[in-house]
Amino acid sequence: MPTPSPAGELRLSTDGAVATLVIDHPAKRNAMTADMWRALPALLDRLAADRAVRAVVLTGAGETFCAGADISSLREQGGSTQGLAVAAEEALAAFPKPTLAAVRGHCVGGGCQLAAACDLRFAADGATFGITPAKLGIVYAPGSTQRLVRLVGPATAKYLLFSGELIDSARALRTGLVDEVLAEAELDKRVAEFTAVLAARSQLTQAAAKEYAAGPAAADRIAHWEAQARDAGEAAEGVAAFLERREPRFTWSV
Fold first, then answer.
1. Which residues are 23's β-sheet partners?
2. Helix/strand/coil (H/E/C) assignment for every residue in 107-130
3. Cα 150 from chain centre
4. What is the pLDDT of residues 225-253, one digit of tens each?
């Protein structure tokens, strides 16, 4: 097992078609330093270019997902860490393949910002969530605010942003902040099972759906995906597999 960096790091591993990014800064409950924020977009670019990778899991080392931004790093950077956090969040949201946050323990501040930028969030029972700029006098970025509103609705978004209070996994599930809550011992197994399902599905379908779900599609993007669907052969393979009672072998890649 690799020795964690005392300064914090993002660790990357792959298992078949699924890549896992681990937020690893145990001395600060996996708080993100400026260097960690900077590293995330480059790692995502690398995974986007890897045709073998079909899904990505984001998680935290040990019993905590991420306690937010490293406040000492924030002070050293004169407050500019917020811009780095937003850039990392937007890179994660724009990643063209399915992403899933696997959450244990605290998922707070910038950690919740990263989890919200993933496509899906699975949490262990007992996880806690909070968005805390009001405790620091920080104006939350408009894109981050709007993403939160799309997930949980305006009332819950205001509750979280106005108060900075933490909510438990049951409330996070009820409000739509997370998609599934599992017993602690079952989380890793469920994440592995579900990402295997994602990796077996049509990446063409997923990529188009992800883009369309982000907002209204321009005519040229609709034409782009129609052309991809016409030329890729994914639908023919899916129909053939159904009729032959076998698993489809989808080959289109981002």
1. 10, 60
2. EECHHHHHHHHCCEEEEECCCEEE
3. 15
4. 999 999 999 999 999 999 999 999 999 99
